[in-house]
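Deviations from the work plan: none for this task. Representative record:
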Amino acid sequence: MAKAKTQFVCQNCGYVSPRFLGRCPGCGQWNTLVEERVGAEKENHKARVSFEGKRAKPQILSEVDMSEAPRIKTGLKEFNRVLGGGIVPGSLVLIGGDPGIGKSTLMLQISGQLSETKRRVLYVSGEESAAQIKMRAERLHVASENFYLFPETDMTNIQDAIKEVKPSFVIIDSIQTMQEPDIQSAVGSVAQVREVTAELMQIAKTNNITIFIVGHVTKGGAIAGPKILEHMVDTVLYFEGDLHHTYRILRAAKNRFGSTNELGIFEMRESGLREVANPSEIFLEERLKDATGSAIVVSMEGTRPILVEIQALMTPTTYGNAKRTATGLDHNRVSLIMAVLEKRANFLLQNQDAYLKAAGGVKLDEPAIDLAIAISIASSYRNIGTDPMDAFVGEIGLTGEVRRVSRIEQRVAEAQKLGFKRIYIPKNNLQGWTPPTGIKVVGVATLSDALKRVFH
Ligand SMILES: Nc1ncnc2c1ncn2[C@@H]1O[C@H](COP(=O)(O)OP(=O)(O)O)[C@@H](O)[C@H]1O
Ligand SMILES: [Mg+2]
C-alpha cells in the first residue's frame, strides 16, 4: 500500500501547509499546526465495515439487537461500580494516570479475570516486553489460556493481530507508545495519538470489541497535551493516588454509560491491587482518641459516604504573615471558614499559623465538610479536644449559618454503622426522615450554636 499523504493543519484557523511550520501564517499563532492525513475527512465518510465485512445500516430502534448488551462484570467490584455496573461491550475506555500509579497492574488483573470468563483478551504493550509482562503476571497470579500478549507499537500489525486473535477485549498500553506508520509525526504527538485513537474507535464500534486505552497524564494534568482523547472515547477513568500511600482511587471523569460520581478505592500490594470494601476504616484507623484539632466528617464520594478525619494545627505566628496551608482540602474554603470564625464567633486568628489536612491522602471537595473544618480549627485554637465519638456535617455560609447538605440519611447511617454516637448536622436537615437508632442527631442552625454545643 502506498504511503498515505499527510498535511499540517492549523487547529486554530484551519490553515493547511504541506510542511510543519512553527507559526501559522494564517492566524499568527505558534505551535498550532498538527499533522493529519490528506483526505481523512473523506475516509471518515466511508461506511463502517467490521472485520467480518458487516456493514452498519440504519435500523429501527425497536428492532436493534441487544443480545450483546448485558454488562460484563469483572471480579473487581470497585471497578464494575466505577464503570456504572460493569463493562459495556464495544465501548472504548480510557484509563489515565501518572506514571507508576498502577495502570498496567490494574489492566493486567482485569485482563486475567476477563480471560477466565472464556472470552479472549489481547494485551498490547508498547512499554514492556512479553517476558517482563509475564513476570508481573506471575506476581499477580494472572494466568489463562485465553490471554494473549503482544508487545507491539505499530497500528497496522495490531490491526492484523486483532483480526487473527478475534478478542472480545483489547488493552492498549499505552496510547503514547502506539504509532500509525502513515503519520510522520513523532510517537506520542497529538497527531499520532489522535489518529491511533480514531482507528481504535472504529475497531471497537464495528466489531463490538471493548478496548481499554492506557494513557499517561502529563504534568499539566492533560493526557498527551490537550485533552484530545476525552471526547473521542466513551468513558474516561482516572487512576490517582499519592505514590507515598498505598491507596489508589479510580474515578470516572466521563461516562456515556453511567454516573461520573462513582469512585473505587484500591490498595496496592505486592500481589497486586486489592479492593477496599470499607474505605472509612482506612481513613480513620490511625486516629488518636484524645487529640485536639481533630474532627470527623462524613463526606460523599459519588453515591458513597466515607468518613474522614480533618486535622487542624493552630500555632502562634513567629514572624511575618500568618501561614495557611491545606493538604487535601481547598485552600480558599479554609480561608473562608477562618474568616467566618473571626467575624461571627469572635476568634482571633490573624496571628495564628494554620495547618489543615484531610488524613489518609484523600482530597475532599464538597461544602458539607465546612463544619468539621471549623470545629477542628476551634478545637486546636482553644486546645480542647472533641469527643472521639462525634461526627460533623454541614456547609457554612458567610453569615455564619449552617446550611443544608445533600444525602443526609446516608451520611448519618454511615456514621452510625461505624460506631459514632453523635452527629452534628444542619438544623434544616432534620425534617422529613427518621434517624437510625443508636446515634444521637443534633441539629445546629449557626456556627456559634455548634461551637457552644460542642465545647459547652
Ligand atoms: N514487587 C512489587 N511489590 C509491590 N508493589 C510493586 C511491586 N512492583 C511494582 N509495584 C508497584 O507497582 C507500581 C507500578 O505499577 P504500573 O502498573 O507499572 O504503573 P503504570 O502502568 O501506571 O506506570 C509501582 O509504583 C509500585 O508501587
Ligand atoms: Mg505501565
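The CA atoms of residues 265 and 301 lie 11 Å apart.
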